[in-house]
Q: What sequence folds into this?
C-alpha cells in the first residue's frame, strides 16, 4: 500500500528558499504571489494491506526520521 | 588521550581531524560508521563533510547509522563527544544536542575565516583557554542554528551556548553573524557539557604558515584539561 506524506516547515520558521521562489515569481510578473513555503513529498510503499496500520507505521517513521519536529510538521495524505 | 574519529560515507574532514589530533599528541583511531562498537576512547569526534550527501536533512541519515548507538551510550556515560560542522548537524539529529542547523539565511555556501567568542569556560573544552576570541574557519551551507524559544531559554539558563560568531574584538552583531544563526550561535553543549557541537573547524587552523593557530589552542586545551 502506498502512503503519501507531506513535510513542511512550521509556521514562523524562516524558509529562505520559499522566500527566494516568491521573489522570483514576483519578478516574473506573478505579482499576486504573497508567500511561498517549500516542503517535501514522500511516497512510501508499505507491505501492509490494512490502511490504518500502514498509516500508523508511517506516522512512526515521520516522527523518527522523515520530519524533524523542531522545525517541521508532517501530514499523511 | 585516546580519540576516535567516525567516518561516514561522505565525510571529508575526517583526515584533517586525524592529522590535527595526532599533531598535538592524541592517540587517534579511525572508526567506520558501520562498526558496532568504538575502541576505548577518551574523545569521540564526528567530523565535517556531507554524510550521505546531505540527503533528507543534513546529518539525519548518519544519525541512524550502526555506530551511533555507541556514540550516544558514550555521551550519556559522560564521555567527550565533539561534532564539527556536519558532525554538529549529526549530533542535533541524534537528539544529543538541541535544535537544528538550517540553511544559511542568504542561501549561500559560506567558506571563510570567522571569529568566535568563547561563552563558557566551565567545561573540559575551553577551561583555562588563554583567549576569549578565536579565529576559526567555516565552510557550510546549513549552519543557521535554530531552536524553539523554550530550548533557547534553557540553553542560556544552563550556559550551554559554547561559542558565538563575533568580530575580531568580540563584538556580536548581525554584521558578524555569517549565516543568520539565532543569538549568533556557532556552537552549543549538552546539559552536562561533555558533548560539544560547533560549525567552525578548529582542525583547519593548526598551522601558522597555512591558516592560523587558534585551532591549535583548542586541541592543546582539551589535552591540558584531560591531564
A:
Amino acid at each position: 500500500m502506498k502512503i503519501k506524506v507531506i513535510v513542511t516547515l512550521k509556521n514562523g520558521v524562516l524558509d529562505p528558499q520559499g522566500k527566494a521562489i516568491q521573489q522570483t515569481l514576483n519578478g516574473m510578473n506573478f505579482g499576486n504571489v504573497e508567500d511561498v513555503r517549500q516542503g517535501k513529498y514522500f511516497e512510501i510503499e508499505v507491505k501492509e494491506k490494512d490502511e490504518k496500520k500502514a498509516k500508523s507505521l508511517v506516522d512512526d517513521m515521520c516522527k523518527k526520521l522523515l520530519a524533524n519536529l523542531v522545525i517541521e510538521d508532517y501530514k499523511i495524505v | 588521550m585516546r580519540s576516535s574519529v567516525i567516518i561516514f560515507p561522505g565525510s571529508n574532514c575526517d583526515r584533517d581531524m586525524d592529522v590535527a589530533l595526532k599533531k598535538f599528541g592524541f592517540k587517534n583511531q579511525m572508526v567506520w560508521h558501520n562498526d558496532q562498537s568504538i575502541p576505548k576512547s577518551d574523545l569521540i569526534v564526528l567530523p565535517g563533510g556531507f554524510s550521505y550527501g546531505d540527503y533528507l536533512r543534513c546529518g539525519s541519515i548518519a544519525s541512524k547509522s550502526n555506530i551511533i548507538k555507541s556514540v550516544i551510550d558514550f555521551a550519556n556515560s559522560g564521555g567527550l563527544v565533539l561534532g564539527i560542522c556536519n558532525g554538529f548537524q549529526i549530533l542535533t539529529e541524534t537528539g544529543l544536542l538541541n535544535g537544528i542547523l538550517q540553511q544559511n539565511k542568504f542561501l549561500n555556501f559560506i567558506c571563510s575565516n570567522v571569529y568566535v567568542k568563547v561563552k563558557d569556560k566551565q567545561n573540559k573544552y575551553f577551561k583555562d583557554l588563554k583567549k576569549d576570541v578565536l579565529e576559526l574557519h567555516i565552510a557550510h551551507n546549513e549552519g543557521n542554528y535554530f531552536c524553539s524559544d523554550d530550548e533557547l531559554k534553557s540553553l542560556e539558563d544552563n550556559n550551554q551556548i559554547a561559542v558565538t560568531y563575533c568580530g575580531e574584538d568580540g563584538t556580536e552583531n548581525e554584521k558578524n553573524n555569517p549565516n543568520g544563526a539565532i543569538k549568533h550561535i556557532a556552537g552549543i553543549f549538552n546539559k552536562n557539557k561533555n558533548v560539544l557541537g560547533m560549525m567552525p573547524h578548529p582542525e583547519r587552523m593548526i598551522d601558522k604558515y597555512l591558516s592560523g593557530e587558534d585551532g591549535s589552542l583548542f586541541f592543546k586545551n582539551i589535552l591540558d584539561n584531560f591531564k
User: Anything to note?
Assistant: The longest strand of chain A covers residues 2-9. Residues 2 and 45 of chain A are 4 Å apart (CA to CA). Chain A is about 35% helix and 25% strand.
